[in-house]
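Before the break, one more example. Copy the sequence into your notebook; we will annotate it together after we see the structure.
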Amino acid sequence: MLQFIAGGLSLAQGIFGYRSAKKQAKRKARMIRQMSKYNAEVKEMEARSIARAMEAETTRAYKQKRKGISTQRAAYAKTGAISAGTPMSVMIDQALEMELDIQDQRRNRLLEIQNKRQQATMTRYEGEVGAQTAKIEGRAASRQSLLSGFAGAVAGFGAGIKGVDQAKFDKTYQKGTAWKY
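Here is what the structure looks like once it is written out:
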């Protein structure tokens, strides 16, 4: 009789373990997705911050460029140089150099922004892969729990039936309110 009870308990344990493993896997997958979403949003926020800083730096650089050109033009005017020929060529070269510096800084910032956005995308992808892995592991654990419960139940029922058969063979089996053997 005890073998039947043990088999039933083993089966119940397997079923509850199955449910518990599935719920735990879903929770873990949800947590991984939430964490990756948060980390991706942080990367996106960093990219937006870099973009705003780039805009401010560009505005400041253009103001400095205009100020530098104005100062240079005034210095040439003081010396009596005309705004043509070599002085004009020097001013144009310096303006071009300043513009190239500004555009180089913008390019570097744009690369940083692109890098942060790519990191955000990769974070989301890694989170989804981690969530899927957690679900697969949870399914495997739940199946293992269910199978061990069935195996324990079969073993318990098998031992119980063997005990009843042995009691019948030994003629110690009695019908009544409980099996006695």
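Helices lie at 2-79, 86-170. The CA atoms of residues 4 and 157 lie 5 Å apart. Try to locate both features in your own notes.
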